[in-house]
Amino acid sequence: MIAEFDLTGRLAVVTGGAAGIGRAIAEVLAEAGARVVVADRDFAAAKATASALKGHALALDVTDAEGCETAATKLAAGHGPAAILVNNAGIVQNAPSLDVALADWRRVIDVNLHGVFHTARAFGRHMVAAGTGSVVNISSICGEVTVHPQPQAAYNAAKAGVNLLTKSLAVEWAGRVRVNAIAPGYTATELTLLGRSKPEWFNTWLAGIPMGRLANPREIALAVAFLASDAASYITGTVLTVDGGYTAI
């Protein structure tokens, strides 16, 4: 292995790590040698994933700012500060803007944007104090372009916020902690099940992807591992798009 890609011994926290892209990220980081902490609201699922990876499970609701601070402090006290934080937890709500319930709008923003801030601040506090670390936020192509035909204004707005939050934290913490984001395109996970079940949605998606297929979660995870590693030591404030060419058209 090229030395700069080696994550041996580094403590990596992955939120929403029990399934989907999060699980793939946890798996790839573990393969690269990291000590992985699988953080998820679904603690049973987190334990199952962590057990498979010989890692640790953490019950974490990213919308609970105080809970995030407590979890980060306990982790730092017991294992030292995280060297890698991947903010992956996210949800989507497909509803027209004229009809979406305000509670649903707030929930999407709370998980996808506020949750990234809560965890970045809680775990980043210890990273900044240690003077080292890498944060990788999982954004989306939806933070850059409006996808269609599915209506999801709240999700799009949240991911756009994640992109600028990433750049803001990167500038604030420069020289101590690197902060970057991955913007996946359509990926074959639970989050896209609804769209994949609707031919009018799915066919539109495929028509807009020059590579003609969805990503698999491991392809996203490998990009995360790169940004988390020393191979990306001079990269901060970047949103790396992994979308099969969707946003290049």
Automatic annotation (TrEMBL):
<comment type="similarity">
    <text>Belongs to the short-chain dehydrogenases/reductases (SDR) family.</text>
</comment>
<dbReference type="GO" id="GO:0047936">
    <property type="term" value="F:glucose 1-dehydrogenase [NAD(P)+] activity"/>
</dbReference>
<dbReference type="Pfam" id="PF13561">
    <property type="entry name" value="adh_short_C2"/>
</dbReference>
<dbReference type="InterPro" id="IPR002347">
    <property type="entry name" value="SDR_fam"/>
</dbReference>
<keyword id="KW-0560">Oxidoreductase</keyword>
<dbReference type="InterPro" id="IPR036291">
    <property type="entry name" value="NAD(P)-bd_dom_sf"/>
</dbReference>
<protein>
    <submittedName>
        <fullName>Glucose 1-dehydrogenase</fullName>
        <ecNumber>1.1.1.47</ecNumber>
    </submittedName>
</protein>
